[in-house]
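DM from R.C. (forwarded with permission)

"hey, sorry to bug you on a friday — could you get me a structure for this? deadline for the figure draft is monday and I only need the backbone to look sensible"
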Amino acid sequence: MLDNSQLKQPTSYTSNHVFNSLQQTSYIFNIASSTGAIAHCIFIFLFFYLEQTTLAWINTLSVSAWLLTFWFNRIRRHDISIFIMSVEVFGHALFSTSILGADAGFQYYLWPMALLIMAIPSLNIAWSSILAFAHLTTFTLLSLFCRTHVDISESSYSTLFLLNLAGASIPFLITAAFSRSIYSRQYFLMAKLAEKDELTQLFNRRFGLEALNYYVNQKGKNGAPFCISLVDVDFFKRVNDQLGHNKGDEALIKISNYLSQSMRETDISIRWGGEEFLFIFPNVELNQIQQRIEKICHDMPNHVVLENWDNSISCSFGLVQVKNNESSEAALQRVDTALYQAKKNGRYQVVSDH
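My reply, with the result:
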């Protein structure tokens, strides 16, 4: 659904602003790696305090494993990173729960790890499913059958349980929140990309048709006038043939910048295709906009200059006011006819149906 806020001339937007998805995944994994390494450092001291030296030394290996995942995050081998994480969590939960019992709560790390494995597509679906199923099965078995207690106080068990419950849930919630934020930004940027031309950053033809249909419908409802202009770059093929396509792209960018920046804030600038542009002028009569378009046409060679190109760069303009009860297709046909007449008359001019 098109809304009015979309139809204002946008600020500069380029595809360079799109976040690299692998880098974003690295951010998510770095959060997991950081929390995993910090948590296991704390457990080293805690286990020594509880005189569980075996578990303390096992945790030194765990810290090393979590630190190793930073390296794989850095080189973007997220498949290896999450595999190391899952193996470490699985082994740590198995050893700790077997020794201390389920009341200590170490099995609770298996749940968020299973969810992380499935939520982030670093491994293929088969491996993700196998690992997640193994974690959840182990969680169930440990919770049901590991009821042994070692010789530590009940208060220590309560402290361990609360620490593990917080340690298993809070980092996962932070990671989930961060993932959601990234997803939201990606969705917004993908929506923008769907309506923008990659080269010129003007609206693309698809969005242009939506906008034109919107104003045609609005005119049918409230009679608000609007005009459209179809613009073609004069002798653009010569630029491509003599200077190459890179220079041709540079010319299109400069032309689109000049044209769009010369329009009103509410006008809609569209790259229609190739070297053609479409402009929609809402809430204006033809006689109100024609003089402005003629000035833009006349001044263009003074504002658009291409290195190593001595000829003037200009455009031909077709300009029409959309009639009552006229379809989008009919209006486009009329403005295309006006543009054709401008080119036939010698180019570098505005032809309207005024």
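R.C.: lifesaver. The CA atoms of residues 12 and 75 lie 32 Å apart.
me: no worries. DSSP finds eleven helices and five strands in the chain.
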